[in-house]
Amino acid sequence: MNTAVSASCRRSGCPSAIPIGLVTEQLCLNHFLDEAFVRTDHALQDFRRGISMDPGDLEWLLSDALAVVTNLEEGADQPNPEQRDRMLELLLIIANLQEYVAHHSVRVERLA
Length: 112
Hints:
Helix content is 56%, strand content 7%. With 112 residues, it is mainly alpha-helical. It has helices at 29-48, 55-74, 81-103; strands spanning 4-8, 17-19. Helix 1 (29-48) packs antiparallel against helix 2, helix 1 packs parallel to helix 3 (81-103) and helix 2 (55-74) packs antiparallel against helix 3. The protein contains three helices and two strands; from the N terminus they run E-E-H-H-H.
């Protein structure tokens, strides 16, 4: 099964192929995970400070989770243990953040 497209990651100097599930991001899996961890970390820090989360941020985190699940499925026949562990850790962080939002009185602001 071919799980990557012929294009290279958009990060300068990165020759890694882009997985099919990340074509719209134009990032290899490692760089996608790096960016997703930064986004979740910022969201968790904001939550802990009582800063409202807007729906766009929440949608972005959920789309990150979907991309991770897609990549887990695509790479199931040839798993990379380090990448798989990072993907599972990211899913756990996103799930925890979603739980925080659901069980605490965090306001999700609507953009006008």
